[in-house]
Amino acid sequence: MELFTSTFENKVDRKGRVSVPAKYRAILESRGEPIILTRSLTLPCLEGMSVDRINQYADAIDSMDVFSEEAEMLQMIIASAQEMRPDSEGRIVLPEDFLAHANISDAATFIGIGRSFQLWQPAAFKARETKSRQAARNGQTPKLILKPRPTSGGGS
Description:
The chain is of the alpha+beta class. It has helices at residues 22-31, 51-62, 69-79, 96-102, 122-137, and strands spanning 7-11, 17-19, 35-39, 46-49, 82-84, 91-93, 107-112, 116-120. It is built from five helices and eight strands; from the N terminus they run ββαββααββαββα.
């Protein structure tokens, strides 16, 4: 599975249209999938993902107590999700409530975070990046355990 990586800053026009990075479009187009875009629950940004990824969220929520506060909270990810397909120029239209949630006006920074990506107001992303890198320099890095990935191909 190809991952969403790198950082791109693109202009947002007066109609709320922004070009999705070609690299991200290619990943989704190779799967024949639209972009699923939702408002982040915890951050002032938007989250973009594949249909497969939003299905993983739904599966995780379905495994919870349906009446729990935790399940209801996570259901908001799906409740605010919108399916989008880029136009012929690779642009999507960001709804007003999405623009307001992320405080995006004239530009958006796309950041690949692996199996999904985020859209940030550029200055807010820079502040977040600076904060994270400073915390890492101060020894506050989270414990990262890398597991071996299965290899493809057959053996003899």
